[in-house]
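Format notes (please read before filing issues)

Several people have asked whether sequences and structure tokens are stored in separate files. They are not. Every record keeps both together, in the order shown below: the sequence lines, then the token lines. Line labels are part of the format and must not be stripped during preprocessing.
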Amino acid sequence: MNQTPMTLLASPSSRRHALRWAAAGVAAAASGPAWAQRAPQATAVEVWKDASCGCCHDWITHMEQNGFAVTAHDTGNNAVRARLGLAAKYGSCHTALVGGYVVEGHVGAAEVRRLLRERPDALGLAVPGMPVGSPGMDGAVYKGRRDQYDTVLVLRDGTSRVFQKHG
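Then the structure lines:
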């Protein structure tokens, strides 16, 4: 028995089958070919640091390996930290801006992602000083040592609270 496309669609099960195939085709066409789909765009980070600071370079590498696109300025960070309103007591060797937030020192990429996801009303995050074991301060030269430290959420009034404990 020869069936034309019209007679195939005459039965309810054939119509359902054809509709499923049509819907799948529309969905595939809407999403485009797999090779044409783009990876998510990297989150931009702008960082100010000293040109000769090795741990700043290591922190930048950590951020890039975790999906951030970093632009670095080798001009030091004291002036920009002050301009951005972050008190010196939260200071470290580099200052960054990401998603409208200040990120001071060796803050981990996961914490920056959390900050951007939660979007608290705050100035940003800081890891004051340069604790060993924090991102950028965790190279072979430290022989696996890990200090206890806190990443703090710095509020707009200058106060802070613990955002993440380490160690």
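For reference, the curators noted about this record: The first helix runs from residue 5 to 8. The longest strand covers residues 43-49.
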